[in-house]
Write a structure and sequence with these properties.
The chain folds into two domains: 42 residues, no CATH class; 38 residues. Helices cover 61% and strands 0% of the residues. The protein is built from five helices and no strands. The model has no long low-confidence stretch (mean pLDDT 86).
Length: 92
Amino acid sequence: MDANAMTQLQAAKELKTNQALVSRILSRRWKRKSAQIQKIADSLGVTASIDPRTSPELMQALAEVWNGDEEDARALAQCIRAIGEARKTSSF
C-alpha cells in the first residue's frame, strides 16, 4: 500500500481500522506494539519499533539496578528477553 498516495482515512478504511490508529502508527506514537500495530505498520510501509529510551520509567529502572558492568548488562538483557518470551505464552 502506498500510504503517500492516499489519505489516512482512505488507508484506515482499506485496512479496516480507524484514522486515529493510522495516524498514531505513521507518527510512531503507540505505547505497546501488538500484532495489529505490526500488521498495519507493515501495510503502510512503516517500521514498527519503539525506542525504549523514550520511556523514563524503563530508563530509571535500568539506572537503579545496573551496576555499570558489561556482564551485568548481559544478565539484565537476558531477564528482559525472558519476560518477552513469557508474554508470548501467557496473559502476563
